Amino acid sequence: MAEDQGTTGDAGTARDDIFETANDRFKGSFGSLFWGSMILATGIHFGIMAYWPELEAEDVSFTMDEIEAVELPPEIEIPPPPEAIARPANPVVTSAAIDTNVTIAPTTFEQNPIEELPPPPTEAVEIDVSAQPTFTPYEVAPEITNRSAVQSALVREYPAVLRDAGVGGTVLMHFFIDNTGSLENVLVAQTSGFEQLDQAAMRVAEVFEFSPALNRDERVAVWIQVPITFTTN
Asked: How far is it, in rounded angstroms, from Cα 16 to Cα 119?
């Protein structure tokens, strides 16, 4: 029995030597692979260090041009604000003696003979109502039809000197509008106190467009008052 066991043990050892696994082969070659890769990596590093081109820093310096002094424009004189409007006096009731027997002397032909009367006009005199403001009856007033354009003109024509100084004002204008709604004549009814604002208001007035006024459903030419206000608000 002992001989049989010894024979069996020798056979198992010989069998293990004959059947070598892949894992055993990998373990056996690990040392040569490791040192071979280390030698190869070292050679590559030395080759890169020896043949790598030299790098130089680029010149990024710069020069500054000489600074030129700029002459400032002369100071602009800001006009003083307009004087405050005096408050109107309060009305006072006075005691006045009025003669109730005041009468107007009658007019008689004896005092004004027919022979001395002036002759009637031979030709009808046409009055140009567009020359100066006059009253014309109307039921429907003209309406501004381009308010956005007028607002843009107010901003565009506002004198920069007065706007930057915070100086504003209102110019009351007389507009003559014909029976088609066209603006035919413009006059300053009340000044703002500043000539520059008055001139700017005249330029803004050229932008206005109106609908015609109506009197008994008929278009009529009329004079109207329009305030033009310049303000920084």
From this structure: 160
Q: Give the separation between CA 63 and CA 152, rounded to whole angstroms.
A: 47
Q: Is 156 exposed, middle or buried (0-12, 13-18, 19+ CB in 10 A)?
A: exposed
In Å, what is the CA distance from 171 to each residue of 143, 195, 231? 19, 10, 12
**Furthest-apart CA atoms within the chain: distance in Å:** 190
SS (H, E, C) 179-233: CCCCEEEEEEEECCCCHHHHHHHHHHHCCCCECCEEECCEEECEEEEEEEEECCC
- The reported pTM is 0.46
> Do the Cβ atoms of 207 and 180 come closer than 8 Å?
no
pLDDT, one tens digit per residue, over 51-98 is: 777 767 777 776 767 777 777 777 778 888 888 777 766 666 656 565
Angle at 80 between CA 74 and CA 84, to 5 degrees: 170
Task: Report the phi/psi class of residue 140: left, alpha or beta, with left for phi > 0 and alpha for psi in -120 to 50.
Answer: beta
Q: Are 171 and 197 in contact (CB under 8 A)?
A: yes
| Separation CA 139–CA 214 (nearest Å) | 6
